[in-house]
From TrEMBL:
<dbReference type="Pfam" id="PF07992">
    <property type="entry name" value="Pyr_redox_2"/>
</dbReference>
<keyword id="KW-0479">Metal-binding</keyword>
<protein>
    <submittedName>
        <fullName>Heterodisulfide reductase subunit A</fullName>
    </submittedName>
</protein>
<keyword id="KW-0408">Iron</keyword>
<keyword id="KW-0004">4Fe-4S</keyword>
<feature type="domain" description="FAD/NAD(P)-binding">
    <location>
        <begin position="5"/>
        <end position="331"/>
    </location>
</feature>
<dbReference type="InterPro" id="IPR036188">
    <property type="entry name" value="FAD/NAD-bd_sf"/>
</dbReference>
<dbReference type="InterPro" id="IPR039650">
    <property type="entry name" value="HdrA-like"/>
</dbReference>
<keyword id="KW-0560">Oxidoreductase</keyword>
<keyword id="KW-0411">Iron-sulfur</keyword>
<dbReference type="GO" id="GO:0016491">
    <property type="term" value="F:oxidoreductase activity"/>
</dbReference>
<dbReference type="GO" id="GO:0051539">
    <property type="term" value="F:4 iron, 4 sulfur cluster binding"/>
</dbReference>
<dbReference type="InterPro" id="IPR023753">
    <property type="entry name" value="FAD/NAD-binding_dom"/>
</dbReference>
<dbReference type="GO" id="GO:0046872">
    <property type="term" value="F:metal ion binding"/>
</dbReference>
Length: 345
């Protein structure tokens, strides 16, 4: 191998996994992260275990992060970005903007793992996110539970909680027809965790469709409804109202009964869509690679994670919505593909 340097952009679970796998295969990895810590969003999520592990994978991120921090073959650049990229496959010349100044590196290949951003609140402003008291995003709930440890500590006095699914996903008006893949899974697990801690709480989940996850999903759903007494309501609120002042009132059409209903909650949690990372277009332009019609980074074809440019690969949620375990699997597959491409070049 003439040049055994590799650039990984983004240190969420996809970038961490790719960096770790590449270092194990003899690469010197330059891991560039624009934030001040490694781990991306999933490193800030709560453990969703009740009496048993809920298999949410959040703790895996912390394990992989610790392994990457201990790995000598990985050079980490925090608060850093790619400012220029030239050269050709096998020998890209990349300029990094780091707190210590501009750094030039020459790399054999590039793996982009720049992650996602949650839907901008104003895109579904009628649901109150960002301006209506008592309305939060699921990301805020994850982070508050991780920070405070207990729901009652994070949200004292809250007894009645509503989850609203598919906010900005499967949404033709926004041009986001895709399913965000993970929100049914995390919302049900979060609801289950809250109910476990607060058995007297009332929880409703408003959905239009439920994305199944895992082989034992039907059993899990039954347990959610019958044992945990979490109400699943087929119908998505179109609007929220702040009347009375201390409650969030939602009005929705129950698509099973056809009736227009309204209900009041102390807290409304919106499962907002996984959308392209805020700076992804800028990064794609710097690297000279294409985005798909939703703005995620385009890969050549299913199962082939080369971008539109040879020697540059994409993995994790910058390529499309996916779970932690799917991001890990894809990042490993990308390193495998890169090694094969190098061997056959
Ligand atoms: C509310 C919520 C809850 C979820 N809960 C679960 C769950 O319980 N289980 C599960 O499996 N999945 C869950 N997911 C999905 C999970 O968040 C993703 O699968 C995971 O975060 C994907 O990791 P990633 O590395 O692709 O992206 P990210 O976690 O977004 O990491 C990307 C990293 O790249 C960095 N970056 C971005 N652009 C640049 C740039 N230009 N230069 C340098 N660095 C850059 C970012 O700062 C970030 O650190 C949840 C998602 C949401 C929204
Ligand atoms: S973080 Fe998730 S996978 Fe890890 S122990 Fe908790 S519930 Fe289980
Ligand atoms: S995962 Fe569930 S909540 Fe998320 S977009 Fe798909 S169907 Fe909607």
């Amino acid at each position: 191998m003439s040049n055994n340097n590799l650039l990984v952009i983004g240190s969420g679970i996809a970038g961490l996994t790719a960096a770790q796998a590449a270092a194990k295969n003899g690469f010197t990895v330059h891991l560039v992260e624009k934030d001040g810590v490694l781990g991306g969003k999933a490193a800030t999520y709560a453990c969703k275990a009740t009496n048993n592990c809920a298999k949410c994978s959040a703790c895996l991120v912390l394990q992989v992060r610790a392994a990457v921090e201990a790995e000598e073959g990985i050079k980490v650049y925090l608060h850093s970005r790619v400012s220029r990229c030239g050269g050709q496959p096998g020998n890209y010349q990349v300029q990094l903007k780091t707190p210590a100044g501009e750094v030039e590196i020459q790399v054999a290949g590039i793996i982009v793992a720049a992650g996602f951003s949650p839907l901008a609140p104003e895109k579904r402003g009628e649901l109150g996110l960002g301006w209506q008291r008592g309305v939060i995003s699921a990301l805020e709930l994850e982070q508050a539970l991780a920070r405070e440890g207990k729901f009652v500590k994070a949200y004292p006095g809250v007894q009645k909680i509503g989850f609203v699914q598919c906010v900005g996903s499967r949404d033709l008006a926004l041009g986001n027809e895709y399913c965000s893949q993970v929100c049914c899974m995390y919302a049900l697990r979060l609801a289950r965790k809250i109910k476990h801690e607060l058995p007297d709480s009332e929880i409703a989940v408003f959905y239009m469709d439920i994305q199944t996850f895992g082989r034992s999903f039907d059993k899990y759903l039954k347990e959610i409804e019958e044992v945990a007494q979490i109400k699943l309501v087929r119908g998505i609120p179109a609007k929220v109202f702040s009347f009375p002042y201390e409650k969030v009132t939602v009005r929705y059409t129950d698509s099973l009964s056809g009736r227009v209903e309204s209900e009041q909650f102390d807290l409304l949690v919106l499962s907002t869509a996984i959308t392209p990372e805020n700076e992804l277009t800028e990064l794609a332009q710097t690297l000279g690679i294409e985005q798909n019609r939703f703005g995620f980074l385009a890969n050549l074809e299913p199962g082939n994670y080369q971008s539109s440019k040879k020697g540059i690969y994409v993995c994790g949620t910058c390529q499309g919505p996916k779970s932690i375990s799917d991001s890990i699997a894809q990042a490993r597959a990308v390193v495998g593909q890169l090694l094969t491409d190098q061997a056959t070049r």
